[in-house]
Amino acid sequence: MSVTIVVARSLNNVIGKDDGIPWRVKGEQKLFREITMGGVLVMGRKTFESIGRPLPGRDTIIVSRTPGYSHEGCTTAATLDAALDAATKTGKDVFIVGGGEIYRQALERVDGVHISTIGQEVDGDVFFPDFPVEGFRLVREKHYRSNIDYTYQYFERVTNEQDKR
User: Fold this and answer.
1) Which long-range contacts (C-beta less than 8 Å, at least 24 apart) are formed by 129-137?
2) Is the model's pTM score more than 0.90?
3) Where are the domains of the chain?
């Protein structure tokens, strides 16, 4: 079992605008589905509401500070810590899928980061933290040609001094 971030960002780190994704890239959502299928998705309330429903084949945990917030087919947690605790108890891989504040809080806690970088700068109001950062190393990279080209990368957390070399 692992806990990882899955994110698509623009060249200027935008991940959202007006409670939505500010691009449509053919194939990128298929990649998201392949990575996350069978796991537990952890996301903030606004991210969940932009999707509108639990995604098939995955458990969903919504992080919300709104008392009493719930959605059929989902678990709700008041904090990221509570969500991660519930998610890890399932024994399934855990995928943190947004939004910006959830990513910021999670970055220091995850085993890895799946990141798709869309090959353009876009206007937006939600951003992914600067990445890569010290403590992670690039393990996989693949370039995709699409209506907007993008690059998928997987970074894993470095666990000891020897791995940092």
Assistant:
1) 129/13, 129/100, 129/103, 129/104, 130/13, 131/107, 131/155, 133/107, 136/112, 137/163, 137/164
2) yes
3) 12-140
Greatest CA separation found in the chain? 48
Closest CA to 83 of 41, 47, 111: 41
Q: Rg (Cα) of the chain, in Å, rounded?
A: 15
Tens of pLDDT, residue by residue over 33-51, are 999 999 999 999 999 999 9
β-strand pairing of 59-63 with 40-44: parallel
Phi, psi for 30 (deg, rounded to 5): -65, -40
In the chain the first and final C-alpha atoms are separated, in Å, by 26
Residue 84 CB contacts under 8 Å (≥ 6 apart), including other chains:
3, 42, 94, 106, 109
Predicted confidence (pLDDT) per residue in 110-149, tens digit: 999 999 999 999 999 999 999 988 999 999 999 999 999 9
Q: Give yes or no for a contact between 15 and 44, defined as CB atoms under 8 angstroms apart.
A: no
Q: Is the dihedral of CA 37, 4, 45, 126 positive or negative?
A: negative
CA distances from 17 to 26, 86, 106 (A): 19, 29, 21
Query: Is 3.40.50.1860 the CATH classification of the domain at 12-140?
Result: no
What would the two tokens of residue 140 be?
A: 């996989």
